[in-house]
Amino acid sequence: MSFSVWAPHHERVAVRVDGQDHEMTAGDGGWWHSPVDGTDYAFVLDGDPLPDPRSRWQPHGVHEASRVYDHSAFEWTDGSWTGRALPGAVIYELHVGTFTRAGTFDGAVERLDHLVDLGITHVEVMPVNAFDGVAGWGYDGVLWGAVHEPYGGPDGFKRFVDACHARGLAVLLDVVYNHLGPSGAYLDRFGPYFAGSNDWGPGLNLDGADSDEVRRYVVDNALGWLRDFHVDGLRLDAVHALVDRGARHVLEQLAEEVDALSAALGRPLTLIAESDLNDARLVTAREAGGYGLAAQWSDDLHHALHVALSGETTGYYPDFEGALARTLRDVFLHAGTWSSFRRRHHGRPVDRRLPGYRFLAYLQNHDQVGNRAVGDRLSATVPFGRLAVGAAIVFCSPYTPMVFMGEEWAASTPWQFFASFPDPELAEAVRTGRRREFARHGWGESEVPDPVDPATVERSTLAWDELSAEPHRRVLDLYRSLIALRRSRPELADPRLDRFHVTCSGDVLVLHRGALRVVCNLGPAAEVPLGAPGEVLLASDAAEAAGQAVRLPAESFAVVQLSGSQPTSVNFSASS
């Protein structure tokens, strides 16, 4: 066995293995090495034992010694797994710690059959990298290659991935390369990993002196999840905060190396970016001048849907009032246009030759729920009819639909911001900062949940016993039927944006999907002309075809098959 660490500006480095120190030998490129056998180890710099920046296992937390972990020792059963490509996918975002009462990978496995029954193809897991404390969202990670021990550690995550593959579910892992958390971030003690900071913490040195090894740190971490944990793709958090002025952006480098790994493994590997740039170059092929990522989130689609359904026009929502049809057509509302929230022009237009599956559409996600003052879900304020219309738009659009855990049954539980830093001063700073942030928007201190109170985590944990009760069952049946219809009708999953048309008249929005019309009514009862006779395939209420029109009750939708093509029967009405 040999221990290695990159510490380019140190004159002496030791490794403490099972309590005994061993001097390390300097090698090329700032790397230090020591051929020692052992289990628990830490690198000693200036007298301080520190965990391995590339640690695979932190059984006692992010401040303590790392433990040797042998990837080859795990017995996988997914040898026949060939992966899942992104086109046609339906993604489900979950947080391991609040997905079940157990708050573990093994607990999550017990609910995977629910996802299969729902029609999910890809499970997107919020960050599982090691962070300080027991409970948290995962975005304050500091040891990116070690799996959070309270969830079940590295073996637990492998059992989860293995179980997903056994059910035909691909796994996407949320990873954070734009900053490190406030507790346990020792990277700068080893070398010039950091360069500046952003709103969340210290950022990485991706283009300065000694940055080659820092970039390697990022890329190797990504490849490790895909190769060693059999993960099928990564969701890259807030890539707009990756400051890289080099000619070859780190995202492009990452995409190139992931493509090479995909070829070697013989299964598709997917990179999905979260980006505030509204720039489709991220998902444009490298040979066409882009970065070559597979897809990106589109918050503009979320914002336009949220405003149309809820009527909320505060914060960053005002620009999206009355903009749903335009945003559905164009992907981004802000496409080189004025953004009042940013007080500048923002974004660029999307080339309609790009396939729609490269953009994710969603009614809710962890950010858009959890970053609200009380973590209230859309279903807490929006009635069933409008929720149903929103779901129909998401699942019948050319974009890749994503569901946030519990959304599919209008879960009564909120999803609130929480953390559990053991340091009392840091915990108080998080508590005070959260309350001050929302006080500026008119919230009283007592109204904002205490993020470091264990009760906040408890409130945010899904209550699975409510699935069979109304109105939750009605919502769940609707989601299942919409996903099933999307899967059975190729028109609904067709990603070609140049074949996707949206018309709007007053409160009625119509999505044109080949021979299908998705008629969405957000106002009073209406009769909507179709231009041809039709048959209702799926509806959220008692819609009916009437000659060359369809009659819809208030706040409802209907998917209508126009005459001239073979209908697919889906015997479901959410009102039944």
Task: Please give a structural write-up.
It contains 15 helices and 30 strands. Helix 6 packs parallel to helix 7 (250-265) and helix 11 (384-395) runs parallel beside helix 14 (472-488). The chain is globular, with a radius of gyration of 25 Å. The model is unreliable at 566-576 (pLDDT under 50). 26% of the residues lie in helices and 22% in strands. The strands form eight sheets. An eight-stranded parallel beta barrel has the order 9-10-13-16-17-18-21-22, surrounded by four helices. The protein has a domain at 3-50: Sandwich (Immunoglobulin-like). It has 576 residues and is an alpha/beta fold. A hairpin with a 2-residue loop joins strand 24 (508-513) and strand 25.
Draw up the topology in text.
Blueprint: E1 3-6, E2 14-17, E3 20-23, E4 25-26, E5 31-34, E6 40-45, E7 48-50, E8 66-67, E9 91-94, H1 96-99, H2 105-109, H3 112-118, E10 122-125, E11 129-130, E12 143-147, H4 153-166, E13 170-175, H5 187-190, E14 194-197, E15 202-204, H6 211-228, E16 233-236, H7 250-265, E17 270-273, E18 295-297, H8 299-310, H9 324-330, E19 337-339, E20 344-346, E21 359-362, H10 366-370, H11 384-395, E22 400-404, H12 424-439, H13 454-459, H14 472-488, H15 490-493, E23 501-505, E24 508-513, E25 516-521, E26 526-529, E27 534-539, E28 544-546, E29 549-552, E30 556-562
Parallel strand pairs: 9-10, 9-22, 10-13, 13-16, 16-17, 17-18, 18-21, 21-22
Antiparallel strand pairs: 1-5, 2-3, 2-6, 4-5, 6-7, 6-8, 11-12, 14-15, 19-20, 23-24, 24-25, 25-30, 26-29, 27-30, 28-29
